[in-house]
Amino acid sequence: MARKPMMAGNWKMNNTVGEAVVLTQEISNQYDKEWPEALDIVICPPFVDLKPAKTVLDFDRTKIAVGAQNVYWEPKGAFTGEVSVPMIKEIGCACSIVGHSERRELFGETNEDVNRKVKALVGAGLYAIVCVGESLAVREEGATEKYVTAQVRAAFAGVDARDAARCVVAYEPIWAIGTGRTATPEQAQAVCAAVRATLAELFGAETAESMRVLYGGSMNPGNVEGLMAQPDIDGGLVGGASLKAESFVQLVEACR
Ligand code: PEP
């Protein structure tokens, strides 16, 4: 089954509102009306930039989706500092990244938290970009596939196939994120294939074949082609290279 590629930009904690408006406008200025036929594009700015970025894209009638980088699973209440799914939904977000390795490593996000967030998102009609990936120590132990597929199982525990089908998995080896060190296309393909095989066990082959599995970790215009040539890599979740309109647009072009 042919899957529509996806290019998602994770801005991390970069860009004030003013800077976000400029970057979104620069991307929008290079918008090609044929992009939506060929691929799905998402930008994931910080929370405060979501509404301004969405406003720019809507004003320009640009079919680029906006997603959050994180979300809390409770809809409202005494959770100081958190932002809920209904809040991001109301301002037009299509999705949220969940389980990014920086959230897992720096903020103690667990597999159980990731699962709650996935359920909250799909329950509200949004989708999750579920990040999974191993540390260098896990890779050197030879335990990568076991570790990553366990993360996939935990993230989707209790999620039904119809909701899972709308979600996206991003395989992001931690040792490749922001380091300039990319997984080889073969390394990335091997893990993305294992992710898909796990999705097939959980949800059946047809659903697994329809789900997008992205690669993330120092993806850039120089290495995107080799990664995109792999049968189980359906696009990218990109940090550094999404912060300049020129490189992000080059990545979008490479995915169509
Ligand atoms: C990311 O933040 O998800 C990421 C892959 O970052 P980078 O592209 O900078 O490695």
From TrEMBL:
Pathway: Carbohydrate degradation; glycolysis; D-glyceraldehyde 3-phosphate from glycerone phosphate: step 1/1; Carbohydrate biosynthesis; gluconeogenesis. One of its GO terms (cellular component) is cytosol. Pfam families: TIM. Keywords: Cytoplasm, Gluconeogenesis, Glycolysis, Isomerase. The active site is at residues 100, 172. Substrate binds at residues 10-12, 178, 218, 239-240. GO terms for molecular function: triose-phosphate isomerase activity. Signal peptide: none annotated. It is found in: Cytoplasm. It is an enzyme of class 5 (isomerase). SUPFAM superfamilies: Triosephosphate isomerase (TIM) (SSF51351). Homodimer. Belongs to the triosephosphate isomerase family. This is Triosephosphate isomerase. It comes from Rubneribacter badeniensis. The gene is tpiA.
